[in-house]
Amino acid sequence: MTKKRKAHTQVELIAIVVIVAAVTLAAIAIPRMSRNSAAARTRACRTNVAMMNTQIEVYYSENSSWPTALTDITNDPNYFPKGAPSCPAGGNYSIDGTTHRVSCSAHGH
To answer: For the chain, which domains are there?
Structure first.
């Protein structure tokens, strides 16, 4: 009796290489995409803060006084026609009564 030797076909070897390559690519790409997403949220938040600070300046130039609360500008469609901006990371925006500048609880800017 002769024993038949089982060998891997080229198709099986190619399938294994493709699977290993896909797993390796996922191991590299997923953490990088997570970092990019966090950086994008931070940049969007900074943009929101800058936009609100600009609108505070506009409010001051129009009213000769600073807003007493952030809602004085965020709820006014003249300043934010599409509604108040929100932090993409879920933070809360607040205004400093002394400096009249906006900061975010999630990002500290």
So the answer is: 10-104 (3.30.1300)
